[in-house]
Amino acid sequence: MFEYAPAPESRSVVEIASSYGLFIDGSFDGGKDGNVFKTVNPATEEVLAEVTSAGSEDVDRAVAAARRAFGPWSALPGGERAKYLFRIARIIQERSRELAVLESLDNGKPIKESRDVDLPLVAAHFFYYAGWADKLAYAGFGPDPQPLGVAAQVIPWNFPLLMLAWKVAPALATGNTVVLKPAETTPLSALFFADVCRQAELPAGVVNIVTGAGDTGAYLVAHPDVDKVAFTGSTEVGRAIARTVSGTGKRLTLELGGKAANIVFDDAPIDQAVEGIVNGIFFNQGHVCCAGSRLLVQESIADELLASLKRRMATLRVGDPLDKNTDIGAINSAAQLARIKELSEIGSEEGAERWSPECSLPDRGFWFAPTIFTGVTQAHRIAREEIFGPVLSVLTFRTPDEAVAKANNTPYGLSAGIWTEKGSRILAVADQLRAGVVWANTFNKFDPASPFGGYKESGYGREGGRHGLEAYLA
Ligand code: NAD
């Protein structure tokens, strides 16, 4: 194996303030009740900034600002709204180095992912929905589709800026205004985005950012003057939100958890499949709702594939997220690390065989070595529950029917992968999988033009593509 010299991206490309207020009605201000929380760099445990915790009065102000902005914003011709979205997309491209470093500092993800995946996709989403803004009459939702009003949007910490883009871009293109709450462990890129909105001269109140924890989110989604709720996060919180919203007339989309099967048939190209398995579960430290966290491999090639996978895993570089050679960065929080450790211990206790390559982890910060469990059965908790970390459960199958049955044997249904040389098998198997996205001979590929969303406990509604417009139109 090559020895790599350190290749650190400069942290000084982005300025982080010591404290941040809330972005309401076009400007930053402190919260009314003076509560703050700290956001830390998970790779070092260093405090990055103090952030305002929005109370009920603050959320009221944000919703009121969005309501005032809604009339004029929705009355603009689509082509005018598009200009703002294009401007935002361009500014994001111009400032993408700053944003990538900020995202890696606050989230722990490797810079090569924030730089080469998150940021290009964020800009692409704004470009894509900018393109729709003046074509809504041709999108298949009637000749004159109308916006809903004020959208309350609550997002998780795994792709902070990308989840913001998925929510804000279609909402604005369709003429809605938004109040967005980022996750409490990763608020900084959303606050940076507020500055991008100012730079783009977006009218005040069209986008409002309120920071805080679950109670801020709960208050926001329950607010009586909100017309639409869009949530991405855990199934448990999604259920609570569905209860809050039910019977209110608010529109709701939920993007929740997953436990995807990545199915490898005996005719698959092994080396490519190994790359897809690695990408499927170790990309973004496995903090991916659609991660390929259950590997289903045909029994006749299981030994060969696992040997190959272990060789590949031994080359993964775990460490400093800002090093351009890093493959696996830090786990986002102490709480998430504790959950990954707990479920992994349960995996061992239940009799699955645990393996990780040798790798030295930094002393400070939150780290977990890439891990696989073999000898896993459907009865194991690690085969059923979302771990949301770099942990792969390996199961085997003998026939395509068995693969389909095992793949669908989950309360979730967000994504799946199929690896085979036969096009006919791809079509036949994909047709039977109860998953919102099915990748064939690839994994974790995203495009703003393709819809994304779940079945069953993975949620409902679609984001992305033409389908993504529907969630914001009456
Ligand atoms: P989480 O549900 O704990 O938190 C998500 C967001 O909801 C955060 O902003 C949080 O502050 C807020 N929140 C917490 N309690 C709330 C409440 N009662 N009311 C309103 N808001 C509340 O999830 P997480 O741990 O941040 O994220 C991980 C989960 O997100 C995983 O299950 C993952 O699969 C899922 N996820 C899904 C998708 C998707 O598109 N389907 C994408 C990314 C993540």
UniProtKB/TrEMBL annotation:
| Protein keywords | Oxidoreductase
Looking up SUPFAM superfamilies in the UniProt record yields:
ALDH-like
- Phosphoprotein as a keyword of this entry, yes or no, is no
Keyword Oxidoreductase belongs to the record:
yes
Q: Output the Pfam families linked to this UniProt entry.
A: Aldedh (PF00171)
Q: Taking every annotated instance into account, which residue ranges of this chain make up the domain Aldehyde dehydrogenase?
A: 35-473
| InterPro entries, A to Z | Ald_DH/histidinol_DH (IPR016161), Ald_DH_C (IPR016163), Ald_DH_CS_GLU (IPR029510), Ald_DH_N (IPR016162), Aldehyde_DH_dom (IPR015590)
Question: What does the record give as the active site?
Answer: E255
Q: Which Gene3D superfamilies match?
A: Aldehyde Dehydrogenase, Chain A, domain 1, Aldehyde Dehydrogenase, Chain A, domain 2
Q: Which family does it belong to?
A: Belongs to the aldehyde dehydrogenase family.
Q: What is this protein called?
A: Aldehyde dehydrogenase family protein
**Organism name:** Actinoplanes sichuanensis
